[in-house]
Design a protein that fits this description.
The complex is a heterodimer of chains A (113) and B (128).
Chain A lengths: L8 E4 L5 E6 L12 E5 L6 E4 L13 E6 L2 E6 L8 E11 L2 E6 L3 E5 L1
Parallel strand pairs in A: 1-9
Antiparallel strand pairs in A: 2-6, 3-4, 3-7, 5-6, 7-8, 7-9
Chain B lengths: L2 E5 L2 E3 L5 E8 L8 E6 L5 E7 L6 E3 L7 E6 L4 E6 L8 E8 L15 E4 L3 E5 L2
Parallel strand pairs in B: 2-11
Antiparallel strand pairs in B: 1-3, 3-8, 4-5, 4-9, 5-6, 7-8, 9-10, 9-11
The chains are: A mainly beta (113), B mainly beta (128).
């Protein structure tokens, strides 16, 4: 059971828009920690997609965007392309008695129909 | 060019130990926190452990606390993960990841570093 909750799967046709949600709580996203998003093909190194909830690293197309509100965050992908088919993970931190600890969402598999 | 190269994975029996290493290059290693993240077969990414630049702040996932120890040698630009009392559920591809954070702690309410570079991973299989 992941600390951050994501839908297991989403799908869309080429050219369409999809969103992936990431729901946390008052000890992580709601506490003020930023949310970051990664694109991952199993067996390879994950790729940073969005950092600081809504910022894109150099080289990431502006088809990818992120937002955060309250205890949740979301990733939106517009103009879906076949190459977007991958697993997507949100990441943040959770506050505990021993300090801040990293947490990931359970991951969402994007299928491009 | 930033490079992170993990090593030390392999097949190990339950209850035994293994030490993973991550050799870093292409950046000032002792400026940044570093982390270990794993992916079990058919599962998602799981944060395992992190260590601040000067080893002053270290953290572990509950699933490995008391069994795994993270450490770093800034003189050798290397990150380590000592894994003891290994279990079948520790079977996974282990990634070394560089944090964007340069602070004294892994994260805080006004600083939530992300993982900007990752290695290719080293596979750990725990089985008899």
């Amino acid at each position: 059971q992941s600390v951050l909750t994501q839908p297991p799967s989403v799908s869309g046709a080429p050219g369409q828009r999809v969103t992936i949600s990431c729901t946390g709580s008052s000890s992580n996203i709601g506490a003020g920690y930023d949310v970051h998003w990664y694109q991952h093909l199993p067996g390879t190194a994950p790729k940073l997609l969005i950092y600081g909830s809504s910022n894109r690293p150099s080289g990431v197309p502006d088809r990818f965007s992120g937002s955060k509100s309250g205890t949740s965050a979301s990733l939106a992908i517009t103009g879906l392309q076949a190459e977007d088919e991958a697993d997507y993970y949100c990441q943040s931190y959770d506050s505990s008695l021993s300090g801040s600890r990293g947490v990931f969402g359970g991951g969402t598999k994007l299928t491009v129909l | 060019e930033v490079q992170l190269v993990e090593s030390g994975g392999g097949l190990v029996q339950p209850g035994r130990s293994l030490r993973l290493s991550c050799a870093a290059s292409g950046f000032t290693f002792d400026d940044y926190a570093m982390h270990w993240v794993r992916q079990a077969p058919g599962k998602g990414l799981e944060w395992v452990s992190g260590i601040s630049w000067n080893s002053g702040d270290v953290g572990y996932a509950d699933s490995v606390k008391g069994r795994f120890t993270i450490s770093r040698d800034n003189a050798k630009n290397s990150l380590y993960l000592q894994m003891n009392s290994l279990r079948a559920e520790d079977t996974a591809l282990y990634f070394c990841a560089k944090s964007s954070g340069e602070g004294p702690t892994l994260a805080s309410y006004d600083s939530s570093p992300f993982f900007d570079y990752w290695g290719q991973g080293t596979l750990v299989t725990v089985s008899s």
